[in-house]
Design brief:
It is a single chain. It is built from 28 helices and no strands. By secondary structure, the protein is mostly helical. It has a domain of 223 residues: Hypothetical protein af1432.
Amino acid sequence: MADAELQLGRLEAAREAYAAARERYLSALNLYEKLQAEDGRVETHYSLASLFTYLGEWPSSYFHAQSALDLSPKKDVEIELRHLLAAFYHATGDSRRSLRELENLLQFHTEGQSSYGQAKTLGNMGDLFTKMGDYPRAVECLTKAYSLIAKSEQEDGRLLRIQSHLLLNMGNLYQDMRDLEKSHQYFSEALASAREHLNQNVESIALLNIASVEYELGRLEAAHDHYSEALDLSRELHNRYGELSALDGLARVLMAWDRMDDALHALWAAEQIAIETGDIEGRLDVLLHLGETHLRRQTAPEAIATLEQALQLADEIGRPKSACDALRSLYRLYADRGELETAFQRLETLYERERALLNAEVDERVESMTARFEVERAQHQAELNRLRMVAAEEARATAEAEVRERTLSLELAQIEVVTRLAVAAEYRDDTTGDHTRRVGQLSAAIGERLGMPAEEVELLRIAARLHDVGKIGIPDSILLKEGPLSPEEYCQMQRHTVIGARILAGGQSHLLQMAEAIAQHHHEHWNGEGYPSGLSGKEIPLVARIVAVADVYDALTHRRSYKAAWTKEAALAELEAQAGRQFDPAVVREALAVLKGSSPLEAGGSLDEGVLMFHAWA
């Protein structure tokens, strides 16, 4: 009878009759415990843990997964249970523990050469990295997972289910990266796949995600319809997580329509589900939206109580951005009520939290970028060492030719990497990305007039493009600010020179060494009043003195968020005025000759030409 109840539960789950499946499983578990049948108890606990994970009932999921593990299950069952535990840690805010579980699982599946296991684990890791804001690693994991499925010769329901989840995860990734149309495309593909294969659970998730994108795009009618459809389906499936998300989403649409009372009732229902299921992340989102609703209804006491609760919860589970959202609303509420001391305390806390958050993000970006360059360099050096060993063991002439060819190939690859990095940094405050190209062209033209060797000129054309690569570590709130910066903001902006030098530091090639010097010193002044080191005169590397002039001229003659474009004549007059103060007089003299004559910029030179010339020299 116990075996029959377990099998019937699995059949009910397969046809997504989850309430019936739960009853069958609990009946089977009760019978197995009376029989003291350990294998049956393991299988039933595992089935219940899987069911509760799908339903978003996290405490129950954790209880049954841990109960099964305590009974020492077989290895294949243990692996599946650890997948469920990773999902539980993720949902309850313990991202680091979730990642550790997934990394161990990936190693196991890789050693066992299980394409299914690897694809499943990589897909979950991709979703986790998306939530953590580590988009490069998220893309890497999801791409590998999709590739494994594409190469697999198996055609079973498990792989189809993973493929649908990968489409959802890719949609989540692009939504986080603000490419909403592409995100909508992936969610729509997931919805079509789910309906084709009669997977209602994935269908409900896809509907929720499509509604979320439509809300962000301002398509409120479509968002309302999809949230409503997802709510009905989630209730039919007894999927509490889906029901919570749909109610929260509907509330946001209702707030946008100024239907505050309806939004409030939806949020109260969502909060109750979050409490019942132990969904801490979901409850935090609901509390923030409840606070916003009370605020717009002008019920300040309820808004304060709700937001203080959200702040406490955000601190408990380590969600600093959500904490800042709560603090930002709280200090305004207290100020409006005349409670100025409390308002000041909340504002002071907000200031400290945001500053710590920005500094942490900057350091994380710099460390990540530096680590990638170090890996690239290590791989290049290892390859060159291998080829040199070949040269010693075989015909030296042939091997040395291969070394030269490989060195050239690696240097060209390095040029492409750093050039793309320069464009990525520039796109943050120049949507065309042309500023770095123009600075490189003008710098090369000035260097040529100063008598630099042709090889150095071509390196300068490329290296100059990296002068502002450190801006990748400056917050958008400062980089894109319209109007003057505060003294503190200006100090933080100055850090881009040090950040850029740290990213490029330690390069073995002359190109990266030149780029490092430019990134660090292109804001030094001839009279010693620049930054970051206060160098003066010829203490400043020549290439940095050249780029300083080219950078300022291009910045003056093109519009920025904080100023209009200057005329060419006014910009040239400014260069002349700053000769001997901000700029090297010799560099200004040659720059004026280039800009007043027929410059390479006006002749239409391009970066591609610079790369080809470097290729010919190398």
